[in-house]
Design goal:
GO molecular function, one term: racemase and epimerase activity, acting on amino acids and derivatives
InterPro entries: Dipeptide_epimerase, Enolase-like_C_sf, Enolase-like_N, Enolase_C-like, Mandelate_racemase_C, Mandelate_racemase_N_dom
Family: Belongs to the mandelate racemase/muconate lactonizing enzyme family.
Number of domains: 2
CATH superfamily of the largest domain: Enolase-like C-terminal domain
Pfam family, one: MR_MLE_N
Helix content: 25-40%
Number of strands: 17
CATH topology of the largest domain: TIM Barrel
Strand order of the largest sheet: 5-6-7-8-9-10-11-12
CATH architecture of the largest domain: Alpha-Beta Barrel
CATH class of the largest domain: Alpha Beta
Strand content: 15-25%
EC number: 5.1.1.-
Distance between the termini: 18 Å
Length: 367
């Protein structure tokens, strides 16, 4: 089957509520929908890019521009030659990781559908069930406590807590303590999104000593370029330190490993693409570093792709695939996984049009 067309469309989606972190407050999920179509079949590969400018420098216009320039290269090429298509994308979109991730997603989806294969099986078939956390954004302490209690009642056993409150670190600490009280027994993962200096990060982490046994990790406490600062924090606290914005590519992860700066990294498809994420898994496994799989503000399409990789490889110690809960319902988008509480279960069937297992209907017509 040869590729007939690559369709690239802005996909701006409302959130259920504003989502505040240290670096920004989001009011909508800015995605780009990518559909790869075939000449000899009605099969379509679905992918989505979710660019975040402060992480990779990309925006919706830059993603569309990069993909539109590259897409004609794919037309007429056989989807069966997936390896060559991915190599072409890696070279042409080397500086556009979120654009590349969305395109890789669509190519993998079409290729797997042409074979009637679920992609989590292609990536190794390690496990069909994953357990994710739920993210609590920067909101007033009482609201954070209420959200946490609700998440616990819904079956979540781990919470990711955003810090970097404009009111200061004391407000962050008070919010975390209120969350711990509102959801006793829940594991906590603290995500600073570069909010601290190294010294402040150490002081802040030590101030959480009363609930230390509930904390799994501290994520990206300092600026993404400050690898020495990451190492300083790691050497002066008892909580594992994970990199996020500092770990955007295999090369950046190699630098983190070489400096022994962190205990683990948060892998996101939008930072490194699928090919880069698979390479990072290998690097971290070889170095004995922990692995977390996270997401941007992505639809269930992006979450399904990440979940299939997590389930297939069985590589991740922590799963943070929850952004589909933050978006308002998307008409016509379905499949990929079954979600109940904190469990994501991948479909075990060998549906003839599987891939990521996602279908999308627009105006009652599949696209």
């Amino acid at each position: 089957m040869d590729i007939r067309d690559v369709r690239i469309t802005p996909w701006i989606l409302p959130l259920r509520a504003p989502f505040a972190i240290a670096q920004r407050t989001a009011y909508e999920a800015q995605n780009v929908l990518i559909i790869v179509e075939c000449e000899q079949s009605d099969l379509r590969g679905l992918g989505a890019s979710a660019p975040v400018a402060y992480v990779t420098g990309e925006t919706i216009p830059t993603v569309i521009e990069a993909l539109s320039a590259f897409a004609p290269t794919l037309v007429g090429r056989p989807i069966d030659d997936l390896g060559s298509l991915l190599a072409l994308a890696a070279e042409a979109l080397a500086d556009s990781p979120s654009a590349r991730a969305g395109l890789e997603m669509a190519l993998y989806d079409l290729w797997a559908k042409s074979r009637g294969e679920a992609l989590w099986r292609h990536f190794g078939g390690a496990r069909a069930e994953l357990v994710s956390d739920m993210t609590v954004p920067i909101v007033p302490a009482a609201e954070a406590a209420e959200l946490s209690a609700q998440a616990s009642m819904q079956g979540f056993h781990s919470l990711k807590i955003k810090v970097g409150d404009p009111k200061g670190h004391d407000a962050d600490r008070a919010r975390i303590m209120d969350i711990a009280a509102a959801a006793p027994g829940v594991r906590l993962r603290i995500d600073a999104n570069q909010a601290f200096t190294p010294e402040d990060a150490v002081d802040f982490t030590r101030s959480l000593e009363p609930i230390r046994q509930s904390i799994d990790l501290i994520e990206q406490p300092v600026h993404k370029s400050d690898l020495a600062g990451l190492k300083f924090v790691r050497e002066n606290v008892s909580v594992p330190i994970y990199a996020d914005e500092s770990a955007c590519s295999p090369d950046s992860v190699r630098r983190l490993i070489a400096q022994d700066a962190v205990d683990g990294v948060n892998v996101k498809l939008m930072k490194s693409g699928i090919s880069g994420a698979l390479e990072i898994i290998g690097l971290c496994r070889a170095a004995g570093k922990g692995l977390m799989l996270g997401c941007m503000l992505e639809t269930s399409l992006g979450i399904a792709a990440a979940a299939h990789i997590a389930g297939g490889t069985g590589a991740f110690d922590f799963i943070d695939l929850d952004s589909h809960h933050l978006l308002a319902p998307i008409a016509g988008l379905r499949g990929g996984f079954h979600n109940e509480g904190d469990k994501l279960t991948l479909d075990n069937s060998q549906h003839p049009e599987f891939g990521w297992g996602i279908t999308y209907f627009e105006a009652d017509n599949e696209i």
